[in-house]
Structures are given as C-alpha cells and as structure tokens.
Amino acid sequence: MRRDQPSNAGPFSQASRLLTWPDDDAGQRELADSAAQVLRASGLVVYPTDTVYGLGALPSLPDAIQRIYAVKGRPDEKAIVWLVSSGHDVAQWCGVDSRFERLAERFWPGALTLVLPRLHPQADGLRTLGVRVPAHPAALRVIEAAGGVVATTSANRAGRASARTARDAASEIGNHVDLIIDGGAAPVGVESTVLDLSTDPVTVLRAGAIPVDEIESVIGASVARLSY
Q: Which domain holds residue 218?
C-alpha cells in the first residue's frame, strides 16, 4: 500500500500546539483530557514516555494510524506498539501465560515491550501485538484519559535518532502533528527492549533499556537474539 506524504493539515490546525506538562494535578488532568480529545478526533499527539518521546494515535481509528505511517515514513510491515495504562488489560487482546505475568510484575511499568499472540487477529492483519506499560506519569495520564491504550511509536522520522525531548520531536515531525506535550527530557533516553513471547524460543527483537540477562533470570530460560 502506498503511504501518502505527510500533510500539515491535521484535524485541529496546521501548526502543532506545544504545551508544557503542568506541575499541579488539576493542570495535568486538564492537559491529559485535551490530549485525549485530540486523539479521539483522529489527531496525533507527541508525548513523553520513560524511554523516548512517543507519537501516538488511537488504535481504533485507522485514519489516525495511517497518518502515523505517513508522518514517520514508516514501512507498512512494521507494527506499532500499544502503550497501555494497566497490564491487567492485556489479557482482553492477547494470549498471556506465566512468563508474561512474571515479566510484567518485574518490569512494568517500565522499558520492556512484550510481543504476544493476538486473541482475535483479522484475516489480513498481524497475528501478534506489542504492548508496554510506560513508567512516566504524563504518559500514563494521557493513556488513561484516552481510554487506556494509545498506539505509539517513537516521535521521529524512520531511520533517524529517537527524540529524547519535545524540542527533538518538534524539529523532526512538529509540522505534521496536532499536539506536543513537553514533559522534559525522557529519563531513560533509549528505546525499550522488545521481547517476542510468541516464538519458541523466546526472542529479543530489539536490544534496549532492559538487559537480556535480567529477562532470562525472570523467565528461567535463555532467549534467542536477533542480529541488531
């Protein structure tokens, strides 16, 4: 499928808004609700996570997901991870087992993405889904306000360095999104480790913030490693 070129025209304005994450609870709630409103209108929101800045859309809105691919120049075959506000929700979408439960208990919220088999994959869709609970208060507030899940990828053009700050994200894709939330520098500063639990053996698809030996100690088994 051909992806359209990024357009400046989002559902709100041609120039993205850049707002600072407030210090007070009422302000945080208001901004999270505003971000959720943008997302529900098929908008794209850049927001801070524990690892790097994320570019998010609601997974239930195909037009918004299409915009993510266009903005990033992302290949069609590369799936987009779902960031969720609670690990307890994952079982409604994916098959989970004791390894998932142990890993989620140990590393969530945190910088580990788990790839799991979908319970109800579409005939022409992906059979797996990557999920993660981020360890960042702004991310969690935005995700909760949006209904508990936001499809999210790094806020940069494909093949370029991930954005660690709102300024980094704005310089990369700021003209093509609807809202940027500035929550300061991402505390971890590197992307999450991606672990595929749908394969035998379990496979690390991307090295990241969580060391592989820590994962192996939790599941009690060696994991395969792709060539990074």
A: 17-225
Across 110-123, average pLDDT: 93
Q: What is the mean pLDDT of residues 157-176?
A: 96
What does the DSSP 8-state code read for residue 9? -
Give one word for 220, left, alpha or beta, with left for phi > 0 and alpha for psi -120 to 50. left
Q: Residue 1 falls within a domain, yes or no?
A: no
- Residue reference for tokens 């022409």: 124
Contact between 157 and 72 under an 8 Å Cβ cutoff? The reply is: yes
Q: Is residue 11 situated within a structural domain? A: no
Tokens linked to 67: 């915009």
**Counts of helices then strands in the chain (DSSP H, E):** 6, 11
pLDDT of the residue at 76: 87
Return the structure tokens found at 73: 């120049």
Question: Residue 62 and residue 68: Cα distance in Å, rounded?
Answer: 10
Domain total of the chain: 1
The strand pair at 203-206 and 224-225 is best described as: parallel
141 in a structural domain? yes
**E-assigned strands of 127-192?**
128-132, 149-154, 179-182
Q: What is the C-alpha separation between 141 and 115, in angstroms, rounded? A: 23
Q: Is the pTM of this model over 0.90?
A: yes
Q: CATH no. for residue 189? A: 3.90.870.10
Gyration radius (Cα) of the chain, Å: 17
Domain membership flag for residue 7: no
H or E segment at 195?
strand 193-196
Q: In the structure encoding, which two tokens stand for residue 95, read together? A: 């098959």
